């Protein structure tokens, strides 16, 4: 009985622990899912979560590991090459042996003074032996020269591979930075588009409610003989059209939410809550200095930086061609000149793209000011509508119609504000280096 009680106590002790562990596991899982996104957090979340960004980080690490390996191989080849100049032991031994044999042969006349008949025989043997050593020395020198040339060629090739890998890494760094910014810009664009569709859906929903009331009134008027059946049918068809448009807007919103989810590295059907578009501080627009911003945009532009690196690669190829007769120096010069032309043309195209976005920003600013003025006028008219309604000068449906017009003006103001923010963000992204 005592043993059973102990077992039960252990079970009761472990149960809460298992529940808590499972709870913590689910909690950690939920923390990995982005459930709410605000506009100002988009870039940070893209850099933290986007699969392409993560893959680029891994690719860069792989390239750097390959560079380390190439640098080690190049260093080993250089050490081996130095060894040929600093370690001539075999050659020195052969030369010493030849010198010793020559010395002994020269001493034969003195040594064999009592045996003159042996002198020619021994001299011949010494000459043969010396000849063998000289032949070995010549073969060794030829072999060492061939090996040294092979090592020189290998060392040169490895040095060039190191240089090429450094160029590849420099290009990839710029490319991956550009990609990260492009993904952040794409997410911002989708975020603002989602909010725009949200506003359009709100306007459509308001129009639907008004049309439903108008249909009710049309049916009453028809029953009283004040309206025809055609009027009712036309209104009902308009209602169905609005309902179809409303469904299409909802589908578009869900598609955009799915794309945002994928950009943040999660399943397309996650229930992501998308925040509001922040109000653009108009002082930001007043502080714009086009000439200074153009200079910044050109200095930061990733496409231009990549083209500069491409020109550098062609310059390296030209330097190699000047030192290597197996490469065409003339062809390398033409290749370099083409990259120089591309760079100049790309700079002009980038300046034009920035100018277009600047003009678009000014246009959106004017449109927003106009829509805001219309909204302010609608607000004044709304007060008059309410006054007329209170005085009995306006029917319920008349009031609803006028308020719907007011609501539409408000929606247009918000949407034009979103479009202004979008243009401003394009302008800012170009300043940071993108080409849009």
Could you characterize the architecture of this molecule?
The structure is a single chain. The protein is mostly helical and 436 residues long. The protein is 86% helix and 1% strand. A two-stranded parallel sheet has the order 1-2. The longest helix is centred in the middle third of the chain and has 105 residues, at 119-223. It has a domain at 277-436.
The share of residues in extended strands comes to under 5%
Show unreliable segments: 1-29
Principal-axis shape equals rod-shaped
Q: What is the residue-mean pLDDT, rounded to a whole number? A: 85
Helical/strand content category: mainly alpha
> Largest sheet at a glance?
2 strands, parallel
Keywords:
12 helices, 436 residues, 2 strands, disordered N terminus, mainly alpha, rod-shaped
Summarize the model shown.
With 436 residues, the chain is an all-alpha fold. The chain contains twelve helices and two strands; from the N terminus they run αβααααααβααααα. The chain is rod-shaped.
């Amino acid at each position: 009985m005592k043993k059973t009680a102990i077992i039960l106590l252990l079970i009761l002790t472990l149960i809460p622990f298992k529940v808590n562990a499972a709870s913590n596991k689910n909690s950690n899982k939920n923390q990995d899912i982005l459930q709410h996104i605000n506009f100002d957090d988009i870039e940070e979340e893209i850099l933290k979560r986007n699969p392409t960004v993560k893959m680029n980080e891994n690719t860069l690490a792989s390239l750097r590991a390959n560079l380390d390996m190439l640098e080690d191989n190049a260093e080993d080849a250089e050490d081996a090459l130095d060894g040929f100049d600093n370690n001539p032991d075999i050659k020195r031994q052969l030369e010493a042996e030849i010198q010793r044999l020559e010395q002994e042969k020269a001493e034969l006349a003195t040594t064999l003074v009592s045996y003159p008949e042996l002198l020619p025989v021994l001299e011949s043997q010494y000459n043969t032996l010396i000849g063998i050593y000289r032949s070995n020395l010549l073969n060794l020198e030829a072999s060492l020269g061939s090996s040294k040339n092979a090592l020189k060629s290998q060392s040169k090739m490895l040095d060039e591979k190191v240089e090429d890998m450094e160029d590849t890494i420099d290009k990839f760094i710029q490319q991956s930075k550009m990609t990260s910014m492009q993904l952040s810009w794409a997410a911002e664009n989708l975020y603002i588009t989602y909010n725009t569709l949200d506003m359009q859906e709100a306007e459509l929903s308001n129009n639907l409610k008004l049309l439903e009331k108008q249909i009710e009134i049309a049916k009453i008027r028809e029953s009283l003989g004040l309206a025809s059946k055609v009027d009712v049918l036309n209104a009902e068809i308009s209602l169905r059209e609005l309902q179809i448009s409303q469904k299409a807007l909802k589908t578009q919103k869900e598609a955009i939410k799915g794309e945002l989810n994928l950009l943040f590295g999660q399943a397309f059907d996650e229930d992501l809550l998308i925040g509001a578009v922040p109000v653009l501080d108009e002082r930001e627009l007043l502080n714009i200095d086009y000439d200074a911003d153009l200079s910044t945009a050109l200095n930061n532009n990733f496409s231009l930086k990549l083209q500069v690196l491409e020109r550098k690669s062609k310059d390296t190829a030209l330097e190699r061609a000047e030192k290597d007769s197996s490469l065409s120096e003339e062809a390398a010069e033409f290749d370099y000149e083409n990259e120089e032309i591309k760079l100049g043309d790309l700079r002009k195209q980038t300046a034009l793209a920035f100018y277009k976005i600047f003009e678009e920003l000014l246009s959106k600013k004017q449109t927003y000011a106009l829509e805001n003025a219309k909204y302010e006028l609608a607000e004044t008219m709304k007060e008059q509508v309410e006054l007329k309604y209170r005085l009995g000068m306006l029917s319920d449906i008349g009031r609803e119609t006028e308020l719907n017009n007011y609501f539409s003006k408000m929606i247009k103001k918000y949407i034009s504000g979103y479009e202004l923010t979008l243009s401003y963000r394009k302008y800012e992204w170009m300043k940071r280096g993108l080409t849009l």
